[in-house]
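Bug #77: duplicate submission created two jobs. Keeping one. Sequence:
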Amino acid sequence: MASFIGRRKFLATLGGAAVTLPRIGFAQPAEKLRRIGIFAGSDENDARARSHVAVFQRELERLGWTQEHNVRIEHRWASDPERMPASAAELVSRTPDVILTTTNSALAAVHAQTASLPIVFVMASDPVGSGVAASHARPGGNVTGFTNFEPSIAGKWLELLKEIAPSVKRVAIIVHPETPASMMFQPAAEGAARWLGMQLTVAGVRDAGEIERAITTFAADPNGALICTPHAVTGRHRKMILALAERHRLPAIYPWRDYVEADGGLMSYGIDAADRYRHAASYVDRILRGAKAGELPIQAPTKFELVINLKTAKALGLDVPAMLQQRADEVIE
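Kept job's structure:
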């Protein structure tokens, strides 16, 4: 009897060990660290660009992706077009799971380096015309994303200039002549100019010198106004454009609200940029969970903002109509 009881105790002890051992010897494997590359076509010290990237990262965290916990994010800042190809090649060589690009030039630089790594773009225009996507509904390949402007917005820019400055008869639109996404605004601007009885001048610029010459030459004749289109070149030299518009007393409209809020420009009409970055995070999340970039539709903006600076309007001798002020999303006193 004693030996039977001892044997039963031994088996019970062995059974208990069998239950507890897996907790010690077979722990769950650590979650795989995924990698995201951010290729920004802006200067690293650009406060607006950095704030947008921060919005993207906060949204990723909300979706469950935390830096150095289950994701590692590498940044590359490349505002100089000449350095973009080398910087893009270096980032692609690190084979991240997905790459976020910002601006058309940054998208073009990364797309030229890879046809396989998933790319999500934001703050870029005309991906089909630029040759990086087959269509908006079915991009195909390895690219998808969120456009920032449609060509028709150029007509709205002219209408707003005419409304805030009725005496305007001539408008110069600043574009980058080698970028299809910049040139796409020209047809809509030409159509609106004919309808409004205005003369349109297309100012193709590539650097600071060409910007200064184009605006100074245009401003030599009266009743002029200025449209600053979105591009890395205009963004890089925005302080100069704003200063030239002020010096020559040109009513001007800009694509981003910070040209007006932070820099004292007259008026802006464009998208809510932060909203685009939040949506881009949702696509990156889906790709990291198995979706294919080329099967996610490219999305156009639906939310636009009008911002007016009354102080700048007063300095230009403009009396902003009350109806226009009421339609604005923000009026800066």
